Amino acid sequence: MSTRTTLLATLILTITTAAIAQAPNTLTAKEKAQGWHLLFDGKTSNGWRGDHSATFPTTGWEVNDGMISVTEHGGEEGGNAGDIITTRTYANFELEVDFRITPGANSGIKYFVDPDLNKGKGSAIGFEYQILDDAVHPDAKKGANGDRTMASLYDMIPAAKNKPVRPIGEWNTARIVIQGAHGEHWLNGVKVVEYDRFTPQFRKMVADSKYHVWPNFGEAHDGYILLQDHGFPVSFRNVKIRELPPVK
Length: 248
Description:
The longest helix is centred in the first third of the chain and has 18 residues, at 3-20. The N and C termini lie far apart (59 Å). By secondary structure, this protein is α+β, with helices and mostly antiparallel strands. It has one domain: Exo-inulinase, domain 1 (Jelly Rolls), CATH 2.60.120. Helix content is 12%, strand content 31%. The strands form 2 sheets. Strands 1, 3, 4, 6, 9, 10, 11 and 13 form an 8-stranded antiparallel sheet that branches. Residues 35-242 form the 3-keto-alpha-glucoside-1,2-lyase/3-keto-2-hydroxy-glucal hydratase domain. Residues 1-21 form the signal peptide.
């Protein structure tokens, strides 16, 4: 094969691949058949509200260029507009979210959230898939054994040491799977956390964590999904979920 023919074939392949690449904030026919639904349409805040409000925040969050993003506010937890939550609760589900952080950023994806637990300042209470610049943000060195680093079950279970974190400014994909008592955190296609609730061992982890002050933390069978405002610019897209059958 000549060099010219090889270059032409490579160009055709590149163009074809780009043409068939899935656009952000869309679902394929296969995903729809599998029961996936978008939680963010890429254009509006439909399906989301403030954690202590019936409406979407007017400041602190923006929907632009196919992303839903936290704006800069100096790193204060909930100090700008506060967190946003889904307008309905979920029990058994598979959730996928693309996220992109900025240098030094802190944020999180929470689930089993009860917005009525914390009526004061700070973030609403629930399980947290940690989003963090592990190399810069000081929270990475707090907690125990790295349980406040990227993709960890915050303050309870550290993510695997070999987790595949992409560089600052690139998109990472979080995946959270909940079915009955079983939970999993995935990062860029790799499972990095796994746990089972309602066991003596798990309840001991809760008792040893910052969540011990919240009555019955970890015992809920459903709750809201939350994107956290921690005052750092962080963007989300391709937020999609499919509900799973309950464990019999």
